[in-house]
Amino acid sequence: MHGNPEAHRLKVEAIARQVRERIGKNEPVHISKGGVRHVVPLPGDLRYRSQSIDISSLDEILEIDPERRLCTAEPGVPFSRLVPATLAHGLLPTVVPELEGITVGGAIAGGSVESMSFRYGGLHDSCVEYEIIGGSGEIVTCSPTQEPLLFDMIHGSYGTLGVLTRLSLKLVPAKPYVRMEYRTFPDAERFYAAMLERCEAGDFDFVDGIAHGPDRFVLCLGRFVEAAPYLSSYRWLNIYYKSTAERAEDYLTTEDYLFRYDAECHWLTRTIPPLEWKPVRFALGKAVLGSTNLIRWSKRLDKLLGMKKRPDVVCDVFIPARGFASFIQWYQRDFRFWPLWVVPYRVPAAYPWVAEEQVGRIGGDLLIDCAVYGKPNGEEVDYSKLLEDKTFELGGIKTLISRNHYTAERFWQIYNRPNYEAAKARLDPNGVFPGLFEKFHRVG
pTM for the complete prediction? Predict the structure, then answer.
Protein backbone atom coordinates (compact mmCIF):
# COMPACT_ATOMS: atom_id res chain seq x y z
CA MET A 1 0.00 0.00 0.00
CA HIS A 2 1.49 3.34 -1.04
CA GLY A 3 0.21 6.89 -0.66
CA ASN A 4 1.03 9.98 -2.65
CA PRO A 5 4.31 11.59 -1.45
CA GLU A 6 3.72 14.76 -3.47
CA ALA A 7 0.24 15.26 -2.00
CA HIS A 8 1.72 14.83 1.48
CA ARG A 9 4.48 17.35 0.74
CA LEU A 10 1.98 19.97 -0.40
CA LYS A 11 -0.13 19.50 2.73
CA VAL A 12 2.92 19.85 4.97
CA GLU A 13 4.05 23.01 3.19
CA ALA A 14 0.59 24.55 3.60
CA ILE A 15 0.67 23.83 7.35
CA ALA A 16 4.20 25.21 7.62
CA ARG A 17 2.89 28.46 6.12
CA GLN A 18 0.20 28.58 8.80
CA VAL A 19 2.87 28.20 11.48
CA ARG A 20 5.08 30.92 10.00
CA GLU A 21 2.11 33.29 9.98
CA ARG A 22 1.85 32.92 13.77
CA ILE A 23 5.44 34.02 14.45
CA GLY A 24 5.56 37.26 16.40
CA LYS A 25 1.80 37.38 17.03
CA ASN A 26 2.23 36.77 20.77
CA GLU A 27 -1.08 34.92 20.80
CA PRO A 28 -1.53 31.35 22.06
CA VAL A 29 -2.15 28.68 19.44
CA HIS A 30 -3.28 25.08 19.48
CA ILE A 31 -3.17 22.26 16.95
CA SER A 32 -6.57 21.37 15.51
CA LYS A 33 -6.70 17.87 14.03
CA GLY A 34 -10.45 17.88 13.37
CA GLY A 35 -12.96 15.48 14.94
CA VAL A 36 -13.26 15.05 18.70
CA ARG A 37 -10.43 15.63 21.14
CA HIS A 38 -9.47 12.75 23.41
CA VAL A 39 -8.66 14.93 26.35
CA VAL A 40 -10.95 14.97 29.35
CA PRO A 41 -13.57 17.75 28.98
CA LEU A 42 -13.17 20.31 31.75
CA PRO A 43 -15.56 23.15 32.54
CA GLY A 44 -14.22 26.49 31.37
CA ASP A 45 -11.19 24.94 29.67
CA LEU A 46 -9.38 27.62 27.65
CA ARG A 47 -6.81 25.37 25.94
CA TYR A 48 -8.73 25.16 22.69
CA ARG A 49 -10.16 28.68 22.52
CA SER A 50 -6.90 30.06 21.13
CA GLN A 51 -5.89 30.45 17.47
CA SER A 52 -5.63 27.09 15.73
CA ILE A 53 -3.17 25.46 13.35
CA ASP A 54 -5.41 23.34 11.15
CA ILE A 55 -3.88 19.92 10.41
CA SER A 56 -7.13 18.12 9.62
CA SER A 57 -5.83 17.30 6.11
CA LEU A 58 -3.16 14.99 7.57
CA ASP A 59 -5.29 11.86 7.71
CA GLU A 60 -3.80 9.43 5.17
CA ILE A 61 -2.01 6.11 5.51
CA LEU A 62 1.06 6.67 3.33
CA GLU A 63 2.53 3.18 3.21
CA ILE A 64 2.18 -0.30 4.66
CA ASP A 65 5.23 -2.46 3.96
CA PRO A 66 4.37 -6.04 4.95
CA GLU A 67 7.87 -7.36 4.29
CA ARG A 68 9.59 -4.83 6.54
CA ARG A 69 6.58 -4.73 8.89
CA LEU A 70 6.46 -0.96 8.79
CA CYS A 71 3.64 1.54 8.48
CA THR A 72 4.05 5.19 7.54
CA ALA A 73 1.08 7.44 8.20
CA GLU A 74 -0.01 10.99 8.78
CA PRO A 75 -0.91 11.77 12.40
CA GLY A 76 -4.65 12.24 11.89
CA VAL A 77 -5.29 8.61 10.91
CA PRO A 78 -7.66 7.13 13.50
CA PHE A 79 -7.04 3.59 14.69
CA SER A 80 -10.50 2.67 13.39
CA ARG A 81 -8.98 3.00 9.89
CA LEU A 82 -5.43 1.91 10.62
CA VAL A 83 -6.35 -1.43 12.22
CA PRO A 84 -8.33 -2.87 9.27
CA ALA A 85 -5.63 -1.68 6.86
CA THR A 86 -2.82 -3.44 8.72
CA LEU A 87 -4.91 -6.52 9.58
CA ALA A 88 -5.42 -7.05 5.84
CA HIS A 89 -1.70 -7.95 5.83
CA GLY A 90 -1.88 -10.03 9.02
CA LEU A 91 -0.21 -7.23 11.01
CA LEU A 92 -1.00 -4.72 13.77
CA PRO A 93 0.63 -1.78 15.53
CA THR A 94 2.29 -2.89 18.77
CA VAL A 95 -0.24 -0.81 20.73
CA VAL A 96 -3.81 -0.09 19.64
CA PRO A 97 -5.61 2.34 21.97
CA GLU A 98 -9.00 1.06 23.08
CA LEU A 99 -11.01 3.96 21.65
CA GLU A 100 -11.58 3.95 17.89
CA GLY A 101 -11.32 7.68 17.33
CA ILE A 102 -7.85 8.10 18.87
CA THR A 103 -5.37 9.06 16.16
CA VAL A 104 -1.84 7.75 15.73
CA GLY A 105 -0.42 11.21 16.32
CA GLY A 106 -2.48 11.67 19.47
CA ALA A 107 -1.41 8.26 20.77
CA ILE A 108 2.25 9.22 20.40
CA ALA A 109 2.02 12.76 21.78
CA GLY A 110 -0.11 11.56 24.70
CA GLY A 111 1.65 8.26 25.41
CA SER A 112 -0.98 5.55 24.81
CA VAL A 113 -0.59 2.05 26.26
CA GLU A 114 -2.78 -1.06 26.07
CA SER A 115 -2.79 -4.79 26.79
CA MET A 116 0.29 -5.57 24.62
CA SER A 117 2.30 -2.94 26.51
CA PHE A 118 3.66 -5.54 28.95
CA ARG A 119 5.75 -6.72 25.98
CA TYR A 120 6.14 -3.74 23.64
CA GLY A 121 5.88 -0.63 25.84
CA GLY A 122 3.98 2.34 24.45
CA LEU A 123 3.13 3.03 20.83
CA HIS A 124 6.00 5.54 20.64
CA ASP A 125 8.43 2.72 21.49
CA SER A 126 7.61 1.17 18.12
CA CYS A 127 8.27 4.36 16.12
CA VAL A 128 11.36 4.73 13.95
CA GLU A 129 10.97 8.19 12.40
CA TYR A 130 9.00 11.44 12.75
CA GLU A 131 8.53 14.44 10.49
CA ILE A 132 7.77 17.62 12.44
CA ILE A 133 7.03 21.25 11.65
CA GLY A 134 8.70 23.42 14.28
CA GLY A 135 7.55 26.82 15.47
CA SER A 136 9.72 28.56 12.87
CA GLY A 137 8.00 26.67 10.06
CA GLU A 138 11.07 24.47 9.52
CA ILE A 139 10.32 20.86 8.53
CA VAL A 140 12.51 18.50 10.57
CA THR A 141 12.97 14.75 10.21
CA CYS A 142 14.18 12.92 13.31
CA SER A 143 14.87 9.34 14.35
CA PRO A 144 16.86 7.50 17.04
CA THR A 145 20.02 8.41 15.10
CA GLN A 146 19.05 11.77 13.52
CA GLU A 147 18.33 14.45 16.13
CA PRO A 148 17.61 11.78 18.78
CA LEU A 149 16.64 14.24 21.53
CA LEU A 150 13.85 15.68 19.38
CA PHE A 151 12.75 12.17 18.48
CA ASP A 152 12.54 11.15 22.15
CA MET A 153 10.86 14.34 23.33
CA ILE A 154 7.92 14.26 20.88
CA HIS A 155 6.44 11.43 22.95
CA GLY A 156 4.56 13.03 25.84
CA SER A 157 4.91 16.56 24.43
CA TYR A 158 1.14 16.97 23.81
CA GLY A 159 1.63 19.26 20.82
CA THR A 160 3.78 21.84 22.63
CA LEU A 161 6.97 21.41 20.59
CA GLY A 162 5.66 21.41 17.04
CA VAL A 163 3.32 19.72 14.58
CA LEU A 164 3.87 16.02 13.97
CA THR A 165 3.17 15.53 10.25
CA ARG A 166 4.39 12.02 9.48
CA LEU A 167 5.46 8.98 11.46
CA SER A 168 6.77 5.49 10.76
CA LEU A 169 6.10 2.65 13.18
CA LYS A 170 6.78 -1.06 13.46
CA LEU A 171 4.06 -3.67 13.01
CA VAL A 172 3.76 -7.14 14.55
CA PRO A 173 2.06 -10.34 13.35
CA ALA A 174 -1.62 -10.81 14.19
CA LYS A 175 -4.41 -13.32 13.57
CA PRO A 176 -8.11 -12.82 12.82
CA TYR A 177 -9.48 -13.73 16.25
CA VAL A 178 -8.67 -13.47 19.95
CA ARG A 179 -9.48 -16.07 22.58
CA MET A 180 -9.90 -14.56 26.03
CA GLU A 181 -9.48 -16.21 29.44
CA TYR A 182 -10.82 -14.51 32.58
CA ARG A 183 -9.26 -15.61 35.86
CA THR A 184 -10.92 -14.23 38.99
CA PHE A 185 -9.12 -13.59 42.28
CA PRO A 186 -10.60 -12.59 45.66
CA ASP A 187 -7.88 -10.10 46.52
CA ALA A 188 -5.35 -7.79 44.93
CA GLU A 189 -2.30 -9.70 46.13
CA ARG A 190 -3.10 -12.94 44.29
CA PHE A 191 -4.32 -11.04 41.23
CA TYR A 192 -1.12 -9.02 41.02
CA ALA A 193 1.14 -12.05 41.53
CA ALA A 194 -0.69 -13.86 38.72
CA MET A 195 -0.39 -10.82 36.44
CA LEU A 196 3.36 -10.56 37.03
CA GLU A 197 3.76 -14.29 36.42
CA ARG A 198 2.02 -14.07 33.04
CA CYS A 199 4.03 -10.99 32.05
CA GLU A 200 7.26 -12.80 32.84
CA ALA A 201 6.18 -16.01 31.10
CA GLY A 202 5.10 -14.16 27.96
CA ASP A 203 2.70 -16.96 27.05
CA PHE A 204 -0.21 -14.65 26.16
CA ASP A 205 -0.44 -11.89 23.56
CA PHE A 206 -2.61 -9.63 25.72
CA VAL A 207 -2.45 -9.06 29.49
CA ASP A 208 -4.55 -6.62 31.53
CA GLY A 209 -7.08 -6.73 34.33
CA ILE A 210 -10.25 -5.24 35.77
CA ALA A 211 -10.87 -4.78 39.47
CA HIS A 212 -14.64 -4.94 39.91
CA GLY A 213 -14.39 -4.38 43.65
CA PRO A 214 -12.08 -4.97 46.61
CA ASP A 215 -12.84 -8.70 46.52
CA ARG A 216 -13.15 -9.33 42.77
CA PHE A 217 -10.09 -8.88 40.57
CA VAL A 218 -10.20 -10.32 37.06
CA LEU A 219 -7.06 -11.06 35.06
CA CYS A 220 -7.84 -10.78 31.35
CA LEU A 221 -5.57 -12.91 29.16
CA GLY A 222 -5.79 -13.11 25.38
CA ARG A 223 -4.18 -15.05 22.56
CA PHE A 224 -4.42 -14.62 18.81
CA VAL A 225 -6.13 -17.60 17.16
CA GLU A 226 -6.88 -18.54 13.57
CA ALA A 227 -10.46 -19.71 14.17
CA ALA A 228 -13.24 -19.22 16.72
CA PRO A 229 -16.11 -21.57 17.66
CA TYR A 230 -18.36 -18.56 18.32
CA LEU A 231 -18.02 -14.79 18.47
CA SER A 232 -19.18 -12.22 20.99
CA SER A 233 -19.73 -8.57 20.18
CA TYR A 234 -19.66 -5.61 22.56
CA ARG A 235 -20.42 -2.90 20.03
CA TRP A 236 -24.11 -2.44 20.79
CA LEU A 237 -26.32 -4.40 23.19
CA ASN A 238 -23.74 -6.21 25.33
CA ILE A 239 -21.21 -4.57 27.66
CA TYR A 240 -17.63 -5.77 27.73
CA TYR A 241 -16.50 -4.79 31.20
CA LYS A 242 -19.49 -6.58 32.75
CA SER A 243 -18.75 -9.73 30.75
CA THR A 244 -15.33 -10.08 32.40
CA ALA A 245 -17.04 -10.64 35.76
CA GLU A 246 -19.43 -13.22 34.31
CA ARG A 247 -17.44 -15.35 31.86
CA ALA A 248 -14.45 -17.68 32.04
CA GLU A 249 -13.62 -17.41 28.33
CA ASP A 250 -14.72 -15.54 25.24
CA TYR A 251 -13.94 -15.20 21.53
CA LEU A 252 -13.90 -11.94 19.61
CA THR A 253 -12.66 -10.81 16.24
CA THR A 254 -9.31 -9.13 16.68
CA GLU A 255 -10.79 -5.76 15.76
CA ASP A 256 -13.65 -6.15 18.23
CA TYR A 257 -11.20 -7.12 20.95
CA LEU A 258 -9.02 -4.09 20.33
CA PHE A 259 -12.01 -1.74 20.57
CA ARG A 260 -13.82 -3.72 23.28
CA TYR A 261 -14.17 -0.64 25.51
CA ASP A 262 -15.24 1.81 22.82
CA ALA A 263 -19.04 1.45 23.06
CA GLU A 264 -19.03 2.55 26.71
CA CYS A 265 -15.93 4.77 26.51
CA HIS A 266 -14.77 2.22 29.13
CA TRP A 267 -17.72 2.52 31.54
CA LEU A 268 -18.64 6.16 31.37
CA THR A 269 -22.15 5.18 30.20
CA ARG A 270 -22.74 4.26 33.86
CA THR A 271 -23.00 7.95 34.64
CA ILE A 272 -26.37 7.81 32.81
CA PRO A 273 -27.69 4.39 33.95
CA PRO A 274 -30.35 3.95 31.22
CA LEU A 275 -27.52 3.77 28.65
CA GLU A 276 -26.71 0.34 30.07
CA TRP A 277 -30.29 -0.92 29.60
CA LYS A 278 -30.74 -3.10 26.51
CA PRO A 279 -34.01 -1.51 25.31
CA VAL A 280 -32.41 1.94 25.44
CA ARG A 281 -29.27 0.66 23.71
CA PHE A 282 -31.41 -0.98 21.03
CA ALA A 283 -33.28 2.25 20.33
CA LEU A 284 -30.55 4.86 20.76
CA GLY A 285 -27.26 2.99 20.61
CA LYS A 286 -26.11 4.19 17.20
CA ALA A 287 -26.65 7.82 18.20
CA VAL A 288 -25.13 7.83 21.68
CA LEU A 289 -22.84 4.81 22.18
CA GLY A 290 -19.18 4.82 21.23
CA SER A 291 -16.38 7.05 22.45
CA THR A 292 -16.78 9.60 19.66
CA ASN A 293 -20.50 10.04 20.35
CA LEU A 294 -20.03 10.13 24.11
CA ILE A 295 -17.24 12.71 23.92
CA ARG A 296 -19.35 14.89 21.64
CA TRP A 297 -22.26 14.69 24.07
CA SER A 298 -19.99 15.57 26.99
CA LYS A 299 -18.88 18.68 25.09
CA ARG A 300 -22.49 19.69 24.54
CA LEU A 301 -23.08 19.31 28.27
CA ASP A 302 -20.11 21.51 29.13
CA LYS A 303 -22.28 24.20 30.71
CA LEU A 304 -24.00 21.63 32.92
CA LEU A 305 -20.61 20.23 33.93
CA GLY A 306 -19.67 23.74 34.91
CA MET A 307 -22.38 23.64 37.58
CA LYS A 308 -20.38 21.03 39.48
CA LYS A 309 -17.94 22.26 42.07
CA ARG A 310 -15.45 19.70 40.76
CA PRO A 311 -15.68 17.51 37.63
CA ASP A 312 -15.60 13.72 37.84
CA VAL A 313 -12.16 12.08 38.02
CA VAL A 314 -11.06 10.63 34.68
CA CYS A 315 -7.37 9.85 34.74
CA ASP A 316 -4.63 7.27 34.13
CA VAL A 317 -1.80 7.00 36.63
CA PHE A 318 1.34 4.94 36.10
CA ILE A 319 2.45 3.34 39.36
CA PRO A 320 5.89 1.69 39.68
CA ALA A 321 5.52 -2.06 40.08
CA ARG A 322 7.18 -1.93 43.48
CA GLY A 323 4.54 0.55 44.68
CA PHE A 324 1.42 -1.19 43.36
CA ALA A 325 0.64 -3.04 46.62
CA SER A 326 0.75 0.24 48.55
CA PHE A 327 -1.35 1.97 45.91
CA ILE A 328 -4.10 -0.63 45.87
CA GLN A 329 -4.26 -0.73 49.69
CA TRP A 330 -4.70 3.05 49.71
CA TYR A 331 -7.17 2.89 46.81
CA GLN A 332 -9.39 0.33 48.55
CA ARG A 333 -9.37 2.32 51.78
CA ASP A 334 -9.55 5.96 50.65
CA PHE A 335 -10.58 6.11 46.99
CA ARG A 336 -13.08 3.24 46.53
CA PHE A 337 -14.19 3.51 42.92
CA TRP A 338 -14.81 0.49 40.70
CA PRO A 339 -14.18 -0.80 38.10
CA LEU A 340 -10.47 -0.01 37.96
CA TRP A 341 -8.62 -0.90 34.76
CA VAL A 342 -5.11 -2.27 35.36
CA VAL A 343 -2.55 -2.50 32.54
CA PRO A 344 1.08 -3.64 32.93
CA TYR A 345 3.48 -1.47 30.93
CA ARG A 346 7.15 -2.33 30.49
CA VAL A 347 9.33 0.64 29.53
CA PRO A 348 12.20 -0.46 27.24
CA ALA A 349 14.46 2.36 28.52
CA ALA A 350 14.05 5.46 30.66
CA TYR A 351 12.40 8.23 28.64
CA PRO A 352 14.41 11.46 28.27
CA TRP A 353 11.32 13.55 29.05
CA VAL A 354 11.26 12.09 32.58
CA ALA A 355 13.43 13.92 35.12
CA GLU A 356 16.43 11.94 36.36
CA GLU A 357 15.18 12.22 39.95
CA GLN A 358 11.82 10.80 38.85
CA VAL A 359 13.51 7.91 37.03
CA GLY A 360 15.14 7.03 40.35
CA ARG A 361 11.77 7.16 42.13
CA ILE A 362 10.27 4.78 39.55
CA GLY A 363 13.10 2.36 40.25
CA GLY A 364 12.47 -0.20 37.51
CA ASP A 365 11.15 -0.85 34.02
CA LEU A 366 7.62 -2.06 34.89
CA LEU A 367 4.78 0.40 35.49
CA ILE A 368 1.15 -0.41 36.23
CA ASP A 369 -1.37 1.83 34.48
CA CYS A 370 -4.34 2.27 36.83
CA ALA A 371 -7.20 3.92 34.96
CA VAL A 372 -9.88 5.73 36.97
CA TYR A 373 -12.81 6.59 34.72
CA GLY A 374 -15.71 8.54 36.15
CA LYS A 375 -15.38 8.74 39.93
CA PRO A 376 -17.71 11.48 41.23
CA ASN A 377 -15.64 14.10 42.95
CA GLY A 378 -16.28 15.26 46.47
CA GLU A 379 -17.40 18.53 47.98
CA GLU A 380 -15.05 18.23 50.94
CA VAL A 381 -12.30 16.08 49.41
CA ASP A 382 -10.88 16.77 45.95
CA TYR A 383 -10.27 13.21 44.73
CA SER A 384 -8.48 14.44 41.63
CA LYS A 385 -5.78 16.07 43.74
CA LEU A 386 -5.74 13.15 46.17
CA LEU A 387 -4.95 10.76 43.30
CA GLU A 388 -2.29 13.07 41.89
CA ASP A 389 -0.58 13.41 45.28
CA LYS A 390 -0.61 9.66 46.00
CA THR A 391 0.83 8.93 42.56
CA PHE A 392 3.72 11.33 43.20
CA GLU A 393 4.28 9.90 46.68
CA LEU A 394 4.72 6.42 45.20
CA GLY A 395 7.07 7.62 42.45
CA GLY A 396 4.52 7.37 39.67
CA ILE A 397 3.46 9.59 36.77
CA LYS A 398 -0.02 10.88 35.97
CA THR A 399 -1.25 11.61 32.46
CA LEU A 400 -1.85 15.30 31.79
CA ILE A 401 -5.02 14.98 29.72
CA SER A 402 -7.28 15.58 32.71
CA ARG A 403 -7.40 18.04 35.63
CA ASN A 404 -3.96 18.96 37.00
CA HIS A 405 -2.90 20.53 40.29
CA TYR A 406 0.90 20.63 40.07
CA THR A 407 2.91 23.62 41.15
CA ALA A 408 5.70 24.48 38.71
CA GLU A 409 8.23 23.14 41.23
CA ARG A 410 6.61 19.73 41.51
CA PHE A 411 5.89 19.55 37.77
CA TRP A 412 9.58 19.92 36.95
CA GLN A 413 10.49 17.31 39.56
CA ILE A 414 8.66 14.86 37.29
CA TYR A 415 9.36 16.24 33.82
CA ASN A 416 12.90 16.79 32.53
CA ARG A 417 13.12 20.57 32.23
CA PRO A 418 16.61 20.79 30.65
CA ASN A 419 15.69 18.27 27.93
CA TYR A 420 12.32 19.90 27.31
CA GLU A 421 13.82 23.37 27.07
CA ALA A 422 16.55 22.13 24.72
CA ALA A 423 13.94 20.57 22.44
CA LYS A 424 11.79 23.71 22.69
CA ALA A 425 14.75 25.92 21.75
CA ARG A 426 15.51 23.74 18.73
CA LEU A 427 11.95 23.26 17.47
CA ASP A 428 10.02 26.28 18.75
CA PRO A 429 12.47 29.13 19.45
CA ASN A 430 9.75 31.74 18.83
CA GLY A 431 7.33 30.26 21.35
CA VAL A 432 4.53 29.77 18.82
CA PHE A 433 3.22 26.80 20.80
CA PRO A 434 2.46 26.91 24.55
CA GLY A 435 4.89 25.43 27.05
CA LEU A 436 4.11 22.04 28.55
CA PHE A 437 3.43 23.29 32.06
CA GLU A 438 1.52 26.35 30.84
CA LYS A 439 -0.75 24.27 28.62
CA PHE A 440 -1.77 21.85 31.35
CA HIS A 441 -1.76 24.01 34.46
CA ARG A 442 -5.53 23.93 34.80
CA VAL A 443 -7.23 23.55 38.16
CA GLY A 444 -10.52 24.59 39.69
Answer: 0.91
